[in-house]
Design a protein that fits this description.
Layout: E1 5-10, H1 18-32, E2 36-39, H2 52-58, H3 62-73, E3 76-80, H4 90-100, E4 114-120, H5 128-140, E5 144-152, H6 168-187
Parallel strand pairs: 1-2, 1-3, 3-4, 4-5
Helix pairs in contact: 1-6, 3-4
Length: 194
């Protein structure tokens, strides 16, 4: 039986991003659990600001199609969402908007994989407000988003130089979220990919 394919990414491309660190920590944890894990940066998939007139005139950007196909091939996806003014980043929202415009082929970019979400923030709330908005967006796109999520407060000091979480409590949160994502992805893994 083929092992589940899992994708980890962050809605930030900033150098030193704590959400890139969180997505990396999740990818590392999942890899140690013998999952087929891809860790990507949206730096490699630049997209223009979504504009329906541009879409009508120029068609879908190649990177939107590439991301949609990549999403659709996964059994599970972990999204780390920075918090900008109490919501998701423009980068993440724009990326999801473009992916949603790509017609599904054999599998749907949002309805095929299981999603897990997390956030890391230097503040005391750990990005939880962005997670509420991200969950709403994913559900609106038809995604199944597991209830478990991870929120890392004081994130500027939460990771060591190897990219691992330094706090036992935070590490348990990550492990619990990863375990739920893996179990749910296995449970809902389409028969054709088994």
């Amino acid at each position: 039986m083929q092992i589940p394919r899992l994708l980890c990414l962050a809605g930030s491309v900033r150098s030193g991003s704590c959400n890139q660190a969180l997505a990396g920590a999740m990818a590392k944890h999942l890899s140690l659990s013998e999952m087929d894990v891809t860790f990507l940066s949206l730096t490699d998939y630049p997209l223009p600001l979504f504009n329906a007139d541009d879409e009508a005139e120029k068609g879908l950007p190649e990177n939107a199609v590439r991301l949609a196909r990549l999403f659709a091939r996964q059994d599970g996806i972990f999204l780390a969402s920075p918090e900008h003014n109490g919501s998701v980043t423009p980068l993440l929202k724009n990326t999801l908007d473009w992916i949603s415009r790509v017609p599904p082929e054999s599998r749907h970019a949002f309805r095929s994989p299981v999603f897990a979400i997390g956030a890391a923030s230097p503040g005391a709330l750990g990005g939880t407000r962005s997670l509420a908005h991200l969950r709403d967006i994913l559900v609106a796109l038809g995604a199944f988003c597991i209830p478990q999520q991870i929120s890392i407060a004081s994130a500027s000091t939460a990771f060591d130089d190897k990219g691992d979480l330094t706090g036992d409590r935070e590490a348990r949160f990550l492990a619990d979220c990863a375990s739920s994502l893996m179990k749910t992805a296995k449970k809902f893994k389409p028969l054709e990919s088994a």
